[in-house]
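dumping this here before i forget
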Amino acid sequence: MNKLFGLIILSCLLFMGGQAQAATPLVSVDWVKNNLGKEGIVFLDVRGPLAGKTKADYLRGHIPGAVWTDYLMGGWRVANKDKIVGMLPPVTKLEKLIGGLGIGNNDHVVIIPNGGKALDVGTATRVYWTFKVLGHENVSILNGGMVAYLKDMDAKTKKPVNPLEKGMVKVAAKSFKGSLQQAMIINKADVSKASKTDGVLVDNRPHNQFIGINKHPKATRFGTIPNSKSLPENWLTKNGGGMFSSPARLNKLYTYASIPTKGSQINFCNTGHWASLGWFVSHEILGNKEAKMYDGSMAEWTADNGLPMQETAKIN
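structure:
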């Protein structure tokens, strides 16, 4: 009996120590190094043009075993039937994309952004949000991305000390089945209701776009959704870089912006990229499970001339 009990305890410890252990939203460089080559962990390199990088940068050096995906052109976001860009693709399309990257439902996906600035970290948070929308909970982001991974240099060779691999990693396709979390999908009717009923709307675009001085090319009108609060995406990382600010500092930022960290909240931007950073911070780091993201954002909202705008600057 004692022997059987011991085997059960050992099995539990092994289970907790492997990929079956619940994923945390953020992992460190040390965590990555300690889990290189482990079965059931897939490192997903999402470096691309938003970070000033190309596939060639991946080929020159990446985390050993990491697979590369093209965030902008690879099928992670599409135009919908109304020609609104940057929208969530059909589940079947995402299943094929993700399975083709060698990712199965039992794998722990660790997303690797470049980590140079908040804009490129948004690539990781958008892909992270996509996995969550598909019901895949076992997903994390490398805090600081490749910039953090390459930071430590050998004093003599002046080369990174952490392991790197060159060339393309070829993987066998796996079966991946998504389970659409419909409650995470917000449409313009939901946003309109929140705007009219004192709901918490968080605009994660740059402040100049929030007040209506400038606008994104995909937004047809200046300003923001009425009754929104401004929380620019580059406030959410340290000095607008690739590392997320601490929960304590984030709480202070939310207080400064007059945004609660509990209760119903909708994050938006232009096309659902910057807003994914806001959603990630609220929902995953600060633990507000009522926070949601408006995928269509200003690209969809401004395309409907029947929906109101709030233009603080009033110079256009």
